[in-house]
Prior knowledge:
Elements: E1 5-9, H1 12-17, H2 24-35, E2 40-43, H3 55-65, E3 70-73, H4 83-97, E4 101-105, H5 112-120, H6 128-143, E5 148-150, E6 156-159, E7 173-175, H7 180-189, E8 192-193, H8 200-216, E9 225-234, H9 238-253, H10 257-261, E10 266-269, H11 271-283, E11 288-293, H12 297-306
Parallel strand pairs: 1-2, 1-11, 2-3, 3-4, 4-7, 7-8, 8-9, 9-10, 9-11
Antiparallel strand pairs: 5-6
Amino acid sequence: MAAPKLGYLLPTRERIMSGLNETGPMLALAERAEALGYDSIWIGDSLLARPRHDPLTLMAAVAARTRRVAVGTAVLLPALRNPVVLAHQVATLDRIAEGRLILGYGIAGDVPNIRAEFAAAGVPFEKRVGRMLEGLRLCRALWSGEPVDWDGRWPVKDGVLGPTPHNPGGPPVWLGAGHPAGLERAARHFDGWFPTGPDAEGWGERWRTVQAAAASAGRPAGAVEGAVYLTIALDEDADAGNARIDAYLESYYGAPAAVIRRRQTAFAGPPEAAADWIGGYAERGASHIALRFVGDHERMLEAVAGVRDRIG
Length: 312
């Protein structure tokens, strides 16, 4: 089993929750993660429901300040964006990153503040899946650099995008999904599957479902990458760490921690135990693992890097 790639989520939401708008400290964290050997830097997305820095703008700065790590969205809500504009932004960003870009996509959960966010953006919430899939097809057509005629939600007449992305066809696009319909979409239309849970055993079962669906769709082996987004708090006292995670989730999402934990997997404990826990996903086929830290990011970046040889 190959060791998985390890990613780090920048605390954009946490900074805004703390009243800190500056980007310099987060860019420094990205540089530190690269120096410690992490493979990727990730940024979340929201307009009004969970205020934070715009991911595409901040990723351009991260890409310019780093040389090796991949940069990705965990996850972007593409239905909120015009896909012609998004295709242009992404192509430019991928040129800045010189091909290191990964787009994590999602459809957003059905909760009141996210519905309000869609309404504020002028986007019908109930149509978000169709908008995401058609928008992705349109982006990929535009990323080809060839003239595009599109008769759909966004009419395009002989449109040619420039620049094209660094890699032909555009960056890999992964789907964050946990429900059966989402697994099927990931298998048929995306380059990766990127959920926030469940536990390692459950993840492995769903990963086998994704792989089987991809094969049934005629896709070659390896066409879909298996990834996972995990939340961890490093603490020698696991109970104290879990209490910190609960408080963090309730502040972050405005919902009971027990409800969030049913959808998102989290771990609290010492670094060595965290490495074994993360390794459980690698054993079941996860090739890329993105970590969201709860607590002192600098300390946890170094602690996880120190036990990385135990992961996988």
